[in-house]
Design brief:
single chain, SH3 type barrels, globular, 1 helix, mainly beta
C-alpha cells in the first residue's frame, strides 16, 4: 500500500465512506480505523443492496476484500 493511499484514508477518518467489496457488496459507514493492509473498521455500518439497507453496526473488513473506498455523499 502506498503512503499516498494511506494519507488519503487518513483524511477520511471519522467520515462517512462507501466501501465496495469483491463480489459486488457495498458497505457504508464511518471510517474508524485502517491499517497498511487496507483492513478497515467501520462504525454504524450498513450493507446497501439496491433499495435495501441492512444495519450491521461495527464491522471489520479484511483488506483483501476491499476494491474501493470513497467518501459517501
Amino acid at each position: 500500500m502506498s503512503s499516498e493511499t494511506l494519507k488519503v484514508l487518513e483524511d477520511f477518518l471519522e467520515s462517512d465512506v462507501l466501501v465496495q467489496l469483491k463480489g459486488g457488496r457495498m458497505l457504508k459507514g464511518i471510517l474508524e480505523a485502517y491499517d497498511n493492509h487496507l483492513n478497515v473498521l467501520l462504525r454504524q455500518a450498513e450493507e446497501i443492496e439496491g433499495d435495501r439497507i441492512r444495519q450491521l453496526g461495527t464491522v471489520l473488513v479484511r483488506g483483501d476484500n476491499v476494491i474501493v473506498i470513497s467518501p459517501a455523499k
